[in-house]
Amino acid sequence: MYSLLVVDDEQYAVEGVMEAIDWKSIGIMAVYGAYSSEEAKNIIRQHDIQVIVCDIEMAEESGLDFLKWMRTEGYFAKLIFLTAHARFDYAKESITLGATEYLMKPVDHDILKDTVAAALKAWQEDEKRESQVQEYEKICAKLSQGELKKLLDSYQDQPELIPEQLQDGLIYRVKEYISQNLEGDLNRETIAGQVFLNAAYLSRLFHKETGEKLSDYILRLRMERAKDLLTSTSEKVTSIAQRLGYNNDSYFIKTFRGMVGVTPYEYRKQTHNSRKKEVTL
To answer: Residue ranges of the Response regulatory domain (predicted)?
Structure first.
């Protein structure tokens, strides 16, 4: 069952949208109304909402701030903004935050109905894709190396033809391999070999799917692991560097400082002093 939430600090506006349109005709079976962002937040916490129609200008908290809260809290309903003022800054920020549409008040009911229908369709497509990605991730995680190689053999000459959902699963497997082998020799050829892809193609695919370079991802995880080891053990910095694949201590220290802002020695001291203060308090 699909649900719609209407948010506006003017009661007549909420009731007008809720009651004047035949929402069931486009698959919306439940319609909720809220007269403030706080009311809207409570409804979202209690109900599964797919589409939201929200006024931008509200007395207590703006629709833009409400959308920021939604994204921070992990709610990804499609949101359609309504506004009585044609302001470029509103339109620009709403797009940046991922709003589905930006409509002017008073809005034609047929246009609003069609816009909500399109937003619901987009939500359904996102849901389907997410389900497919999760399924492929499970499949790729469970396949043996032999089974995975057999699955990918037909794409060896044209890896760009690998289905997108399968690509997502391969990236999941690559991340798992990296996480399990941070304390060792990690290079893109070795990693690519785990998923039977050309190293150059894997680098391009990883960047396309994650927005992060493969080398940067490995570096970031290694520095996080270094921070954990510096905090939770008394192991020497030299030993930690070697565990993480750095044979040159100076290079490890320089890299750590570039990423964290302080040297490993300073980081350990700061963390130790911070914990000491907490115990004292």
So the answer is: 3-120
